[in-house]
Design brief:
- Pfam families: Arv1.
- Mediator of sterol homeostasis involved in sterol uptake, trafficking and distribution into membranes.
- The strands form 2 sheets. A two-stranded antiparallel ribbon has the order 1-2. Strands 3-4 form a two-stranded antiparallel ribbon.
- The protein starts with a helix and ends with a helix.
- Helix content is 65%, strand content 4%.
- It is mainly α and 246 residues long.
């Protein structure tokens, strides 16, 4: 009786504290109070005495700029205080962008311009193959991150919801891959350098997403990213041994 009542109460409190303060990461019951007639009062965090989420008054463009600058407050606003449900679609689109870039580079390296149907079919198959390889590399990268974090801080990922939240954060933080398309459209002599900068930006975004989601210092997310890259490069080496162009 008493134990069940405490369980129900704790679940109710968890539901109520669905938001986070973007400054100190403490849980919050509400972001603002609506006094109607267009009067809103932003809630103040009981822990740090600052507004729980100042971004609810900001224009989405400003929020996006702050996210591009990898500000922790902007990441907390997006991950905890908004109901964004584009994780899967964004991941697929980013993988399509990466597959297209690799497919384009593969076509550039091939001098065969024969318009034969068989050649066109082979080129189409190459695109699907690049999409599959990019997906496997992304998966191995994430697995490396999860293994490292679970090994270093097992108390942080005890619940299924913790894994799901971190996965969503990682998927959202790969948005930088969308820059791959304009990097190729505006092709010039520095395209490889641009692609390298995009890769670094995505890794920094991934690290910030881990840090914000699990409330960690900067060192452990960087270590997790490093181990994820090792696993990803291991998959690349495996494909190269098979004889596939990646």
């Amino acid at each position: 009786g008493a134990g069940r009542a405490r369980g129900v109460l704790s679940r109710a409190m968890a539901t109520l504290c669905a938001y986070r303060c973007i400054e100190c990461n403490e849980e919050a019951v509400e972001l603002y109070r609506d006094y109607q007639r267009g009067v809103l009062r932003i809630s103040i965090c009981k822990s740090c005495q600052k507004p729980v989420d100042k971004y609810i008054e900001y224009d989405p463009v400003i929020i996006l700029i702050n996210a591009v600058l990898c500000k922790a407050q902007a990441y907390r606003h997006i991950l905890f205080n908004t109901k964004i449900n584009i994780h899967g679609k964004l991941c697929i689109f980013c993988l399509l962008c990466e597959a297209y870039i690799r497919w384009l580079q593969l076509q550039d390296s091939s001098q065969n311009t024969d318009p034969d149907d068989l050649i066109r079919y082979a080129k189409e198959w190459d695109f699907y193959r690049m999409f599959g390889i990019a997906s496997l590399e992304q998966t191995s990268f994430f697995i490396g991150i999860f293994i490292t974090l679970w090994w270093m801080t097992p108390e942080m990922l005890k619940r299924k919801s913790d894994f799901i939240l971190l996965l969503k954060a990682l998927l959202l933080s790969t948005y930088g891959k969308l820059l791959l398309i304009p990097a190729v459209i505006w092709e010039h002599d520095y395209t490889p350098l641009c692609l390298a900068f995009i890769k670094v930006f995505v890794l920094i975004s991934n690290s910030q997403a881990i840090r914000v989601t699990l409330n960690l210092n900067r060192i452990l997310p960087c270590f997790a990213i490093f181990f994820g890259l090792i696993l990803e490069n291991g998959v690349v080496c495996l494909f190269q041994k098979i004889g596939w162009d990646v």
